[in-house]
Amino acid sequence: MSARQKQQKFVYDFTEGNKDLKDLLGGKGANLAEMTNLGLPVPPGFTITTEACREYLESGAEPAALCDEVSAHLDALEQRMGKRLGQADDPLLVSVRSGAKFSMPGMMDTVLNIGLSDASVAGLAAQADNERFAWDSYRRLVQMFGKTVMGVDGDLFEEALETAKQARGADSDLGLDAADLRQLVEDFKRIVVKETGREFPQEPREQMDLAVRAVFDSWNTDRAKLYRRQERIPGDLGTAVTVCSMVFGNLGPDSGTGVAFTRDPASGAQGTYGDYLQNAQGEDVVAGIRNTVPLADLEGIDRTSYDQLMTIMQTLETHYRDLCDIEFTIERGHLWMLQTRVGKRTAAAAFRIATQLVDQGLITEAEALQRVNGAQLSQLMFPRFDDTVADSGSVKRIGWGIAASPGAAVGKAVFDSYTAVKWSRSGEQVILIRRETNPDDLNGMIAAEGILTSRGGKTSHAAVVARGMGKTCVCGAEELEVDTKRRRLTAPGGVVIEEGDLISIDGSTGKVYLGEVPVVPSPVVEYFEGRMHAGADEADGLVQAVHRVMAYADRVRRLRVRANADNAEDAARARRFGAQGIGLCRTEHMFLGERREMVERLVLADTDAEREDALGALLPLQKADFIELFEAMDGLPVTVRLLDPPLHEFLPDITELSVRVALAESREDANENDLRLLQAVHKLHEQNPMLGLRGVRLGLVIPGLFAMQVRAIAEAAAHRKAAKGDPRAEIMIPLVGTVQELEIVRDEADRVVAEVEAATGTRLRLAIGTMIELPRAALTAGQIAEAAEFFSFGTNDLTQTVWGFSRDDVEASFFTAYLEKGIFGVSPFETIDRDGVGALVRSAVEAGRATRPDLKLGICGEHGGDPESVHFFHDVGLDYVSCSPFRIPVARLEAGRAAARPH
After folding, report:
1. Which pLDDT tens digit goes with each residue over 604-627?
2. Would the pTM count as exceeding 0.70?
3. Which of 124, 520, 560, 887 lies at a C-alpha separation of 20 to 30 Å from 98?
4. 53, 860, 871, 874: which one is catalytic?
5. Which of 53, 324, 461, 883 is the catalytic position?
6. What are the pLDDT digits (tens) for 536-594?
7. For residue 880, which phi and psi values (nearest 5 degrees)?
8. Nearest 5°: phi and psi at 642?
9. CA distances in angstroms from 463 to 70, 256, 366, 400, 468, listed in the order given
10. Angle subtended at Cα 124 by Cα 36 and Cα 106, rounded to the nearest 5 degrees
11. Catalytic residue check, 244
């Protein structure tokens, strides 16, 4: 044993930790310790650390010191409780629960009632004076332990339970008496033996040790790994394990269990929110197996416990300065706190709560920025259902459930996770319909547009996971009868929805519709478009909250935000969305449509005169495009990238053209132009066009091409100046790999600009720079900066060339496998690869600025609108990011968050 292991502490009593030890004790253990420190009623227990889990997962065995530490803490717990684990006449029972640093609801394992056995069940019944309760607790243990620890298919237990209820004529397990439950325990134990070849363990300590090991193992289940990839949680953290003395909500009508939120996690509204279930244990609420009552009903059921809970909720929210999610149990009128954590919430709730807490003086504006993020803002910009259509009767409402997670989702009905994944991979939009979801449904929940369940409330598994993922969800639609075996849903009035039928669900109202309901822009988009003022009467609290957060982000951010826009319409929209210029105007988009013929003329030109004629025809069209663009962005910088793609992209497809020529020749009706075009297409054909004749290479090989574009830019700028405008054009040379390329093109551009200045009598200040999109350009950035006034990092191509990927090919072939195997946590085309591509960006920034301290630096790849990437670009010192118009608000918000985050 190493000296480190001898000194290492693997077990902490609830009285020893605090909320800041989440890395070590996990969220559950750290927060149980914090509540214990606050003097709240927490059942005694202890936490096994994440370090113990990591060592177990790495070596396959628990740390040598762990057994003795657990024994010491268990002895202390037994002395405190005055009874021993599994003691025959008065058993101490414990729960064994997972608890990672980051909340992973339902993804890992929990076992309740550890310590019950054939020998102690009678003692529990005697102590509780309730035989039914004792056998109910025992059957729960065998069911949970059998599934979680021994690997028995959970459906076998559910089927046995359903059989017992049918025999008794009961609608729920509450209709089973003690004798029924005693028989059910025997049935469950027989299932265990049949499926595993082992008896259900009767030794209490063996039960506990096996359960702890099962919780450790649950860190690496497929569903846990999938959830971590979805939520970008590191895979090497491990989980802590809490061992807590049991308190019972299933002792009778004066007992129960519930989940509470200090604010509505769906809307952010202040008030009493949550679910309560009498005569039940905790998993009944989250699983959604029985429908709960609203937490407010607890006031009429048990006023004393309700008042105490309200006081505790206020204490916790003030202490944590955030929305708190609380699990509690009432045991014969005594309230116990089983868990608290900062609660998951919808995007709308996140913005509302952040501003509410500022107004209450609990957090600062800078802290409020860290309580929201760009992904949430994106969700708020999604369309919503058109209420005028939805409520008009032109679409049929077939049900109404609980609005668990907002949004508008339309898709084909599917009734299991496998089908949801299969159909979504085929391009279908689907709605996953279940009675209730469980952790095994995670794949389908991710694949679906929305989730609909007939059971469960706002704290059910479906609701909690959907809110965390930003998925639309309607729960507890009790009037809908879900038949997963026959793959159909029956609504009131005999309406039947078969698998594949189109339905619409509204997670903001809980309404379910047959067919497709039209959508309209969200109020947040209306606000960004300028069609709704934050102070207007029709602006709700959400728009006002978004306005306040965005205003603060704009005040504190250092990064400017530009748009990728190629025409005046996109530029105008980008400006409304808050763009501070154009970071990328792709001139190739100006050569499409009817102008293709002019490009064909350029390609087919055999003489200098023909080439000059073709370029001359393009010049006025390009100039007119730039005049419109500069007018739309008057007073703001517009970076125009000269032609980048290979010329063959503007020519007909080689196969189609070959067929056309062959057919014409067979009819002896050959077209001379088509023949010349075909020869040109063959001549320009490349095996790997991405690395071929494109970008700066085009400008060097085709005389006059770049000069024509520079002249169009310069003449458009002069035109705008003559019209009293303020054009701020920047000319960007693409795909430069060496400074010599840039110098040659720059000299030509300077000559053209000087000619336009002389001809118009206008002084033009046109900055000339380059895109850094090749590894060599990044590595020689110091040299390139001698000829460039600005760099714009083209991270799309830079990612392709650093990784050796052809994006169009790899995303369709092996990217899914790479993501599933954990090689990528996220696609490097979505979020910047900090270690590879990011390292080149950082070194290019440093080298470029060492040569030219006033070098302007930006990024115009898709990463410019990715939240995590924006933080990286802030850190490395870029001046601006550029992204598509719709992502501009996200980039503004994230730039503010990056500037305001604590260091």
Report:
1. 777 889 889 989 999 999 999 999
2. yes
3. 124
4. 860
5. 461
6. 766 688 999 999 999 999 999 999 999 999 889 899 999 999 999 999 998 887 877 77
7. -155, 160
8. -70, 165
9. 35, 21, 30, 15, 9
10. 50
11. no
